[in-house]
Amino acid sequence: MLRREADQRDGRRSLLVLTDEGADALAAIRNFRRRVIAEATAGWPSLDRDMLARLLTRFAQNYAQVTAAK
């Protein structure tokens, strides 16, 4: 699902590149996650769904910042 390529700017490094198969698998995972979240929140008022979307986005951004620093 990934392939290794040489980094053209730094020969000591390798890059991992998503293959078509990997992109398809990632799309399937994202679609599954969207369907499950939509089903789990189907009975929620739209304001609650909007708030969840905002908070999940905020959480993901903060999580990325915290884990990048470690």
Give an overview in words.
It is a single chain. The protein has helices at residues 20-40, 46-68; strands at residues 2-6, 14-18. By secondary structure, the chain is α+β, with helices and mostly antiparallel strands. The protein has a two-stranded antiparallel ribbon with strand order 1-2. Strand 1 (2-6) and strand 2 form a beta hairpin. The longest helix is centred in the last third of the chain and has 23 residues, at 46-68. The mean pLDDT is 94.
Q: Give average pLDDT, whole number.
A: 94
Overall number of strands: 2
By helix and strand content, what is the structural category? alpha+beta
Tell me the radius of gyration. 18 Å
Tell me the major beta sheet. 2 strands, antiparallel
Terminal residue distance: 27 Å
Strand order within the widest sheet? 1-2
Order of helices and strands: EEHH
% residues in beta strands: 5-15%
